[in-house]
Specification:
Elements (H helix, E strand, L loop, with lengths): L5 H7 L1 H30 L5 H16 L7 E10 L9 E7 L6 E2 L4 E4 L3 E8 L4 H15 L15 E3 L2 E3 L5 E6 L5 H12 L10 E4 L3 E6 L5 E2 L7 E5 L8 H13 L29 H9 L1
Length: 296
Amino acid sequence: MRTSTSWERCWGNSAYCWAVEQNRLSEIFQSAAGRLRADFQASGGFTHHGEKGTAREKILVDFISKYLPGHVQALHSGEVITVDGQVSPQCDILICDRSTPPLLDLDSYRMVPSECVYGVIEVKSKLDAKELVDACEKIRRVKRLPKSAFYPQMLQTQYRMYGREYTYVPAAGIIFAFDSIDMVKLGDHLAEWCRDKPLGERPDSVWVLGKGYFTWVDDEPHPQIHAQESGDLALMELPEVGEVLFPFTLYLSMHFSAARMDPLRLIDYARQASLGTAKNHWSVTSKAEASTRTNE
């Protein structure tokens, strides 16, 4: 009697196939969550608060770098700068176009053009009301930075987000925490902060390892990757597959897979600086060319 292959069993029984895939996903992301939590606990050995925070941010950078679309990259620690000289607060993680030319790259710290930034992630060890407001305000300042240094395009792409049209992809704002206060109380604080803020300046999602996540939902209600005009803030129950890491990685993929930017016009960042003054001139026009131009 011939034994059927796993492919044949999946083809003939979709429920079986889903169960197998669900089990594999569960194993993969539960294992990833365990490693992430173990690394987090190990980072507690740092006595200096700054070193501890830096180590935990790096843990998350290493994790998400495995799951981001190929045309974007996660940069650890940096500031966002604009053509007109505005500078963001120090950001824990920047999600940027892979073609981004850092204006300053010291390996552990960078300055990145605003046009190239698709998103920012603020990382917290334990998220409470004070840390939540701190993260929200940093995200708000990044989201308000202009993006203007692009080469003109014949066909201009329009992006419909946050209740309006953009000619560029606006920066996403994400908060990730390894622990938090009670999630319902945290939701109260988040809703209160968002209440009087424009859609485009609110955090797009908040994730707490092992507890759940906050996102925006529409009338269905379906989770959205950014704040909606008629949407509500919702606390999502912890899924069975891989805690929050499974929906978190899917969210990153959905949000940044379609992110694109027009060619960066880097010269705009040098407008306030001299590129040199012409001291001498030499004509290289031949006599024949000069004669032709005269006759014309």
